[in-house]
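Structure tokens please, single chain.
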Amino acid sequence: MKSNLTFVSDISKKEFPLADKVSAKKIRNPILALIENDFPDFDKTKFLAIEELNMYREKYISNYLLVEIGELSNLEAKVIDSLSEDKLLVSGVEDELGARTVGQKVADQVAGFGGSWKFIILFGVFIMLWILANIYILLNKGFDPYPFILLNLILSCLAALQAPVIMMSQNRQEEKDRERAKKDYMINLKSELEIRMLHEKLDHLIMHQQEELIEIQKVQIEMMNDILSRIK
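Here you go.
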């Protein structure tokens, strides 16, 4: 003898708690069409569990993405997985952004220092001391007399080395921006899909409450009829 607190799903023929019971009448037509496609005998007189309904909701969302976006990319697949597993997207993306190699760290530090006023001032002081030392202290007979060929060589080498390092840092920044853009897209897509699922759940709750109110009204009408019949 089966317990009164359970029911048997008309889809899987498995037993579920009675609280998870959902009538086919409460299911939106697009989702009901998916269920009927897999189970032709399923109609509005049948019942299924909320767990099974959620599975078809996810299937409906996947089909929607296929129609609107085309072939599902890794990003959309990750979003659907996060919906089914109820996990966050932000933490995983932030971990990917935080992973840097030693070369990338050095490039970021060099680019940060080379693009600061501190570097400009220090390098300007260095050039002035170099020129003054060769012209006035060493009387233009020092290690680098005018027109300062050694200084020009040093400046050329510094520019040749600094430019690719700064480009490495810029590439790193562009990579971070692309990852952030992907993260924003995934979060926005997940929010949209969760809102759709919330609408489905709210519709289910509203219809369930309406049925309960109708049943309560029927009971009240029966009680009123009993009272009237007794008065008569």
